[in-house]
Amino acid sequence: MFDISYIKIGAVLAILAAVGLGYWHYTSILSDREQLRIQVSSLTDQRDQAIKTANDNADAAKELEATYKVQIAALEVMATETAAAEALSRAFTDDLAGAEDIAIPDALAKPFLKRFGGRP
User: How many CB atoms lie within 10 A of CB 21?
Assistant: First the structure.
């Protein structure tokens, strides 16, 4: 009836093996693709988080720089005021050094001397 030879059986088995190997290769590629998609998704999330962190750090640095500039301006004002106070103090000291002694009324001298341990 049917004359099936070993060559025909071998050819059918070879075709089935080729189709089976092709299917196995195709499913492994799909599996690899799915794993890569998951990795890409994870890396994208990490990248987005890193960008957000970097932006937050940049904002914090800008705020810190603004605070620093305000403090520097305050220190410059304080330094200017200190220099003016020192100049006024020197002028006052110079005026006192050049002034002649004056007589202090006894009503003021005795309490002053008593307070600071001098003799009347």
Answer: 10
Between CA 84 and CA 76 the distance in angstroms is: 12
**CA 23 to chain CA centroid, nearest Å:** 53
The model's pLDDT over 46-64, given as tens digits with 9 standing for 90+, comes to 999 999 999 999 999 999 9
Tokens 């220099």, residue located:
83
Three-state DSSP at 104 gives: coil
The total of other beta-carbon atoms located within 10 Å of residue 110's CB is: 13
How would residue 112 be classed by pLDDT, with cut points 50, 70 and 90?
confident
Question: Would you state the structure tokens that stand for residue 109, as one six-digit string?
Answer: 């001298």
